[in-house]
Amino acid sequence: MDSIDYFIEVNRQNHAAYSAGLATIDGVSLLPFDDREKNNYQYAVLVIEENLAELTRDELVIVLRAEGVLARRYFSPGNHRMQPYASSSVDSDRRLPVTLDLADTVLCLPNGTSVSIQDASRISDIIRAATTNAAGVRRILTRRKDS
Question: How far apart are CA 120 and CA 72, in angstroms?
Fold first, then answer.
């Protein structure tokens, strides 16, 4: 507990670096923290809008992992698709469109003391390069899937 302020400050600085690095990328939104609240800045959560980023969240995860970034899908799959819920309601997908959207679009980036401000900037650069070259990235991923 003696180091909690240090951990929070590292997370806050990383979040700020992600925010600066991702700010102008179409279809990629870093969820902000409310400065009026006390936060630990533990999570760096992105929402990926495929129609703007031209890549899906899952395609972006593949790119990031290929570059050694331990990004992960977040809130995926939705709880209603896991047992025991999946077998108890056949129309839950229809009734939970927001849950489905979040489960398909939310991505969590690495954070914490093992991530430096430079790492956060590099990760942002990878995301920018992938979305800027989305058509080429998608062709490569399709070829990989087909082989």
Answer: 15
